[in-house]
Specification:
Layout lengths: L2 H7 L13 H11 L11 E6 L2 H23 L10 H20 L6 E7 L9 H13 L3 E5 L6 H7 L9 E9 L14 H4 L25
Antiparallel strand pairs: 1-2, 2-4, 3-4
The structure holds flavin mononucleotide.
């Protein structure tokens, strides 16, 4: 797959088929992920794949509770606000909530939960290149997924369940949910354009180029 197609169309997919992801595909995803840059090449990362139905059922309950707490925090105004038009963002949040509801209801049907752990991840900088590479590699396989961090509300409980050696400094960064998507791939168009989020030489000075439409405009492979 063309790298630009993968970059432009790797949307977060929360509606998936139950079909399992073959082990060979899982190997290709992680083998791509571990090529990612990381500070000092210390590779203090660990990827824990969960496909056991009983474990998924236990995690589903925790996920549901964590999500309720996150939405309570959102309602109380306790989470980060968008840096742009709040009306447009409210519509985005409504869509995320709808697909998130579906995701939560079908949690135990998700074929693969990939937990990502790191030691001293530099505020995420040291681990997100690998996470994004995993998602791009999955995209090349026709596999979709979503990054979730909501389990942070009960990180201790989750790490205990998964027998993570926390005493060695491991922390849970994210849970990726992976599967063959029910929806179609498309360009992530709901983004503020380059000129609105960039400047040159001084903050707020004109970046010098205007991009009115996504610069990759092919037809996504599905
Ligand atoms: C650090 C991070 C944490 C996220 N956490 C969650 C989450 O807990 N649950 C969820 O459904 N989506 C989560 N997302 C996905 C975002 O909601 C998604 O990227 C955003 O809505 C844009 O969606 P799109 O790429 O499909 O356009 C997370 C994304 C990132 C980068």
């Amino acid at each position: 797959m063309d790298v630009h197609e993968a970059l432009y169309t790797t949307r977060m997919m929360r509606r998936m088929h139950e079909d399992p992801i073959p082990l060979e595909a899982q190997a290709r995803i992680l083998d791509a992920a571990i090529r990612a840059p990381n500070g000092g090449n210390t590779q203090r990362w660990h990827f824990l794949a969960v496909d056991d139905p009983k474990t998924k059922a236990q995690l589903a309950e925790v996920y549901r509770l964590c999500r309720a707490r996150e939405y309570a925090d959102i309602a109380a105004g306790g989470l980060a606000k968008p840096a742009h038009d709040p009306v447009a963002h409210a519509e985005t949040m409504r869509k995320i909530k709808d697909s998130g509801d579906y995701f939560t209801e079908h949690f135990t049907d998700i074929p693969l939960l990939l937990f990502v752990f790191a030691i001293d991840d530099h505020g995420g900088a040291n681990i997100y290149p690998a996470i994004w590479s995993a998602l791009l590699a999955a995209r090349a396989e026709g596999i979709g997924g979503v990054i979730t961090t909501v389990l942070r509300y009960e990180a201790e409980q989750v790490m205990e369940l998964l027998e993570v050696p926390v005493e060695a400094g491991w922390n849970m960064t994210a849970m990726l949910a992976l599967g063959y998507p029910r929806g179609r791939w498309g360009v992530a168009a709901n983004r503020r354009p380059v000129q609105e989020v960039s400047s040159r030489n001084r903050w707020g000075q004109d970046f010098g180029v205007t991009v009115d439409e996504p610069l990759w405009n092919g037809v996504p492979e599905n």
